[in-house]
Design goal:
single chain, alpha/beta, Rossmann fold, SIR2/SIRT2 'Small Domain', 2 domains, 6-stranded parallel beta sheet, 3-stranded antiparallel beta sheet, 10 helices, 9 strands, 36% helix
């Protein structure tokens, strides 16, 4: 196996981040090694995520979503952090990474032990009522959906079941699935996830910009930066004179702003960076190598 500390470009990456405060922005590409597919990476099949307008306006779309999510969320809940997530958590403990913005909803950074995480697009683990704004756990909703649809999930699960990055399982037969409403007010329930066509809450965006402004380098890991919700932070960092490092397989929409672009997997590059710092005895909490 290739030694991650000898990867091409790793020395340049270490030069850019060591001794500087780093903010991290991650996308679906960092979670592929945990078995969660991405949307736009090389070899990914075409995906058309449901929009907010479809979800709230069309009960057929909504039924299809909840049927597929009822099966798919379990696969996401069972996913575990990979070497890339663990390396970023290690870099945070070393004081190199000051905070992390993720476009993913899989909670894998939190599961890896990362402390300062902004879940830009929400998480799969919570459900919100669009009428009373109440929140419930996805686990508690699963019990209600199972009671309304006994055996549905078990019958749908197969060895080759494909689950998208938003916990949407690919199913064809969803017409018999029964939805449930908010137990408190009877309102429409929606995953606490920012859908396409929906705005990220302003306080969350402000917190993310603050994290970037507190840093001296922005490191992007596993994002094609196709949507503006992530690209805006790259543009902001470049505009304010902060170096931008992009680690991603294939081109990204932010390559023109990158000080360094590494066309490689996140797990390998981030593990290599953590090992370089470990071997040097670097610990930003004491400011100098040990």
């Amino acid at each position: 196996m290739c030694d991650p500390s000898r990867l091409p470009g790793l020395d340049r990456l270490a030069d850019l981040v060591v001794g500087r405060r780093v903010a991290v922005l991650t996308g679906a590409g960092i979670s592929t090694d945990s078995g969660i597919p991405d949307y736009r990476g090389p070899g990914s099949p075409p995906r058309t995520p449901m929009t907010y307008q479809q979800f709230v306006a069309d009960p057929v779309f909504r039924q299809r979503y909840w049927a597929r999510n009822h099966v798919g969320w379990r696969r996401m809940d069972a996913a575990r952090p990979n070497d890339g997530h663990r390396a970023l958590a290690r870099l945070e403990r070393l004081g190199v990474v000051g905070g992390l913005i993720t476009q993913n909803v899989d909670l894998l950074h939190t599961k890896a032990g990362h402390r300062r995480v902004i879940d830009l697009h929400g998480t799969y683990a919570r459900v919100r009522c669009l009428s009373c704004d109440g929140l419930v756990s996805r686990m508690s909703l699963a019990d209600r959906l199972e009671a309304a649809n006994p055996g549905f999930a078990e019958a749908a699960i197969t060895d080759g079941l494909e689950v998208a990055p938003d916990a949407d399982a690919v199913l064809t037969d969803t017409a018999s699935f029964r939805m449930v409403d908010c137990a408190r007010c009877g309102g429409m329930l929606k995953p606490d996830i920012v859908y396409f066509g929906e705005n990220v809450p302003k306080p969350r965006v402000a917190a993310a910009f603050e994290l970037v402004d507190d840093a001296e380098v922005l490191l992007v890991a596993g994002s094609s930066l196709t949507v503006m919700s992530g690209l805006r932070f790259v543009r902001h960092a470049a505009k304010t004179g902060r170096p931008v490092v992009v680690i991603n397989r294939g081109p990204t929409r932010g390559d023109e702003y990158a000080t360094l672009k590494l066309d490689n997997g996140c797990s390998a590059m981030l593990t290599g960076l953590a090992r370089v710092l470990d071997r040097s005895g670097w610990d930003a909490r004491v400011s100098v190598p040990a």
